[in-house]
Structures are given as structure tokens and as C-alpha cells.
Amino acid sequence: MWSNFFVQQDEEGRIGVAGAGQGGVLGGMKGGRGQRRTPKMSDSQEGKIKLAFFVSIIGVTLTVLGMGTEFWVELAQSKNFSGNQTCQMAHYGLWKGCIRTLWVADIDPERTSCGPAELPGESNCTYFKFFTSGENAVIFKKTTNKNLNLASAVLALLSLTMMVMGSICIGMSLSKGVAFFLKPASFCFILSGVLVLLSVLIFHQSVLALLSSDHSIPLHHELSWSVACVGSAGAILIFGGFLFLILSLPFSPWQKCLPHKNSAT
């Protein structure tokens, strides 16, 4: 009987030791898993990200400034077309167009067309009806192509959406101190810059379609300062997106794990 008792005690002891060993291994595995955390960025890296974000914000500001104005293109009659002391010109953007009446005496004598739009005069501005009733606008007997104008406006709005998403990614990256969100941010800013440039190209095609719709009134056209703002913004956004992509490369997880593997061996 005593021999059976000691054997039973011995078996229970072995089971307890085995259970403790398994618990230790599992605890070690959990502890090992708990120690694997996303590497935090350094202060210098955070400063570089903020600098790249400042560059991108400049592009966002120029985009918003250009999209909100109606100085994308200027259409000008000859300053002597009416045969009186005034002449007319038009300028418009994505959402609104204006017809301005200027005094011929205020125009540069060497300039043959009416303008520029910055001269004092009467202005009559109206919003386009592309987005409400779907009607085309008529400017100096020339009709717009609403499909091209709508496409340009939609691309511009999509670019703003991508800018907002990229800014959110950068904000999360800086607040949490991780570089995981830099690649999505770079994708958003690069795509927004491409969309902005496509919007400018399609808008230019809409201007050419407007001019070719009627030839009874000769017009001189030129792209205005808003297009320069938006075009520069597109290039800045693409540059900022590539900066975020470059900054995200040194923070690859496998590169951070290499020193730990070498130290373990």
C-alpha cells in the first residue's frame, strides 16, 4: 500500500512539474509576443515628416485657392469690336463665370484685346447650371461642353478628398509615433496631385471646345493665374507624396528585427 502511495505522489509531482513547464513556455511565448511592438519614430524622423507635411499643406492651400476662384481662363473680344468706348471680356472657373465691361481708355494701347480682368469696370457673375439643371452656359454666342466641365470639377473634388485622407493619415502617424500610415499618405497625396493635373488638362480641353462651338465672334483666350496655382499645387502634392514614401522606407519592420536576431545568436 505504501509503495502505491509513493508511486502516486511521484506521478502527481511529475504532472505538476510538466504543467509548470508548459505554463512557463506559454508565458514565455506570450511575453515574447507582447514584447514585439511597432517601432517608434525618432525625434529627427518626426521633424522630417512635419517638414514634408508642411510642403504638402502648401499644395493643398494652392489647390483650394485656385478651385475657389473664377480666374481659370480669360476670353477677350477685340477692344474695338463694339466700336465705342467700352469692350467686353469674360473669365470663369469651375463653378462661376463673369462678364466684364471695361473702358477702352484704361487698356494698354499696345494690347489689341480687351482686358486684363484686373482693370476696373462693371462685372456680371453667375454660377454655372451644370450641377443643377444640367444646362450649358453661353458666353459670347459660344456654348460650353458641360461633360468636360463636369469631369474637370469632379476630378478637382476627388483630389480634395484624397488630400483630406492623406492629412488624416499623417495626423495618425504623428499622434501614434509610427510610420505605418506614411505609405497610405504618400499614395493619397500623389494621387491627389495627379487628379489636380488631370483636372487642369480637361478644363483646357473644355475651353477649346467652347471656342470651336461658334466662330462669329473672334476671341482671344489665355489661361489665368488660378490655373498656375492649381498646376503648381499638383506638382507640389506629387513631390510631397514622394517625400512621405521615402520617409517610410527606413522604418520597415524586418529591418528593425535584424539587430535582435543577431544579438540572440
TrEMBL record:
For the keyword Transmembrane, the answer is yes
Annotated Gene Ontology cellular components are: L-type voltage-gated calcium channel complex
> Which key words tag this protein in UniProt?
Membrane, Transmembrane, Transmembrane helix
The yes or no answer to whether the keyword Transmembrane helix is present is yes
Transmembrane intervals: 51-73, 150-174, 186-211, 223-247
Q: Which Pfam families match?
A: Claudin_2 (PF13903)
- What are the recorded Gene Ontology BP terms? regulation of calcium ion transmembrane transport via high voltage-gated calcium channel
Subcellular localization: Membrane
Name of the protein: Calcium channel, voltage-dependent, gamma subunit 6b
Native source organism of the sequence: Dicentrarchus labrax (European seabass)
